[in-house]
Amino acid sequence: MASMSVKHAIAAAKKLRSLQERFNPGGSDIYPALMGDEAITALIPSGNPLSVHILMFTRALREQGTDEQYEKFGRRADNNEIIGTFAQTELGHGTYLRGLEARADYDRGTEEFVLNTPKLSSYKWWPGGLGQTCNYCIFVAQLYIDNEAKGMAMFVVQIRDEETHMPLPGVHVGEIGKKMGLNGVNNGFLGLKDYRVPRLNMLMRHQQVLPDGRFVKSPVSQVSYFPMVFVRCMVARQNSNYLAQAATIATRYSVIRRQSPIEEGQPEPKILEHLTQQMKVIPEIVTAVVYRLAAANLQNMYNETAEAVYRKDFSRLPELHALACILKVATSYDSTYGIERLRQACGGHGYLTAGNLGNIFAMAAPACTYEGENSVLYLQVGKILMKNWSQVLAGRELMPSMAYISECSKMTSFPQWTGSWECLLKAIQYACVGSIRLAFQSYNARVQSAQSQTAAVNYSGLELTKAAELHGRSYVAGNFYQQIVNSPNKHQRSPQFQKVLENMLELHLIQIFFRHLGDILRFIRITEDEISALQRRLEEVLKELRPDAVAITDAFDFNDKILSSALGCYDGNVYERLFEAALKHPLNRKSVPDFFEAHLKPFMKENADNAKKSKL
Ligand SMILES: CCCCCCCCCCCCCCCCCC(=O)SCCNC(=O)CCNC(=O)[C@H](O)C(C)(C)COP(=O)(O)OP(=O)(O)OC[C@H]1O[C@@H](n2cnc3c(N)ncnc32)[C@H](O)[C@@H]1OP(=O)(O)O
Ligand SMILES: Cc1cc2nc3c(=O)[nH]c(=O)nc-3n(C[C@H](O)[C@H](O)[C@H](O)COP(=O)(O)OP(=O)(O)OC[C@H]3O[C@@H](n4cnc5c(N)ncnc54)[C@H](O)[C@@H]3O)c2cc1C
């Protein structure tokens, strides 16, 4: 599996390189963006062993290295002359980066760093492609000068000979083992013992160790976390795509499969005519659209911020960090659970490998963990919300994506309920702000009662994550509302298209409202009649969107090769394709399987003989 993945990944890398040269010669940005394209990931169903090379190794060299370091390592990496990975996580630590145990001690006598993974728990563990594909890596370690810790730093480390691919002396490298999916990625382990690299192998754009051992601190220490911010943005985009793929498969299947007449004596309808089936499938289509738009916005913000960071302007980093965290979490959670709901919506056939929903799930699910475990990122956002609430209390302005928090904080009560889109959006935002206020009160009370800030975060964790989740909902719904209702492009849309978009907005807002009804009712009074009216609107909008479901998923524009699904093929020949896939199974190659003579026949015979004996 690993060798097939490497072969496909190399073919894809070559193709993309040529596209890069054609469309953006000399530039660097289009390449990773193309690599993130759904076509690439879908065509390598066991995962792309070059993902981390492209998404993190090359980027870190470009963004964290000096110009000289880029010339030495980065250009070769961009040309794929060397293949690397990002080796940060250890067997004992992934989340708590300040607890990483790998160390780099500066030896000013030789102007080298001595790299070590002193314990089993400090072995690097998980980096994509590290097991077998890579010959280089970025090794993240605690920097020590004269045995004094200086914080995390990144080192370019050659781990295999460029000619023979043999691990170099002092390097212990291998594959970590079979996983639930992504088995072509060859995630690896790495131990280093007294492994020396020249001083200029430490990436020094933002912090430096001078030849005499003097340490020049980065102006903003979090800039060393920047490679992770990029991948979080990519996860938001990629996981929205996985959800869109699963939604396309389930929608196409739901208009082919027929079950159970709705009226006695009528023919069996397509299963998508059943209201509960509509509720399983159509909201996932809409969620995929909503997240794709949010991820595109995030990508733009990343591009602008990355340019600024390169110029050493770090002012927008906190806002980008907060948004990248919240969208990474929202898209990975909602795609993972959404894909599973869609698989169930395909009944028994959804469980067949030929439907490809299992593999799409296996590709989407680990994003809840990698690049920052989701609860941990929620807590990051929770902490940022606490800081921003302090700003609100001090009457200061907030970052643009949190401006609604200031607005809602000024409201003494929720306005008259109208049920309009504005009202639904405001209700979600208002509940979010109420949750932030309560979380702040708990957090602050703990700090006032002499708990440390970190302990207060831990014990207010449930309220902080709730506030963060609602902030994610508020941001995503607000972004969608703006794009449908206030977009400057609105007037270029046909009335029919605008109506479909408005139906999607209606469904999204009502769905989020019901999902968070408990949270909303804590802060807003709504009558039973008002909630029932929304229930009727939900049923109505599902009915209205039903005829458009296939067209919307067709507009995602996934071809059959990408979907790789007997259930989701464009021509709708589901049963023929399921049969074709079944006939290709190795067990169908022979009419009588080998195990019959070897095991089954003797087993049955032995039972028959025993039965005969017991009758005698
Ligand atoms: C070929 C292509 C195919 C294509 C596919 C397409 C793409 C799809 C995606 C792809 C698949 C890729 C494969 C998977 C790759 C996975 C790679 C990894 O997992 S790699 C491993 C990933 N590993 C992880 O993700 C590890 C997760 N852990 C962490 O990130 C950190 O330990 C921490 C954030 C949890 C704590 O940090 P710590 O410093 O201990 O503590 P504090 O909390 O006290 O924060 C202090 C201050 O820093 C601030 N701040 C924090 N972060 C950032 C930031 N990023 N920026 C800016 N600021 C940040 C924070 O707000 C605070 O500010 P202030 O209050 O002072 O103002
Ligand atoms: C498919 C895959 C690919 C990966 N690729 C790479 C790679 O290329 N390079 C790389 O360096 N790493 C990689 N990783 C590792 C990944 O980044 C880590 O697994 C991730 O950061 C989570 O860390 P952890 O595994 O230590 O989880 P842990 O932190 O041990 O999490 C376990 C549980 O503890 C909880 N927890 C931990 N800390 C806190 C806290 N402060 N507060 C509350 N709860 C907490 C979590 O919420 C979770 O429920 C990959 C992982 C996977 C699954």
Automatic annotation (TrEMBL):
Keywords: FAD, Fatty acid metabolism, Flavoprotein, Lipid metabolism, Oxidoreductase, Peroxisome. FAD binds at T89, G128. Signal peptide: none annotated. It holds the Pfam family Acyl-CoA_ox_N. The keyword Oxidoreductase applies. Pathway: Lipid metabolism; peroxisomal fatty acid beta-oxidation. GO terms for molecular function: acyl-CoA oxidase activity; FAD binding; fatty acid binding. This is Acyl-coenzyme A oxidase.
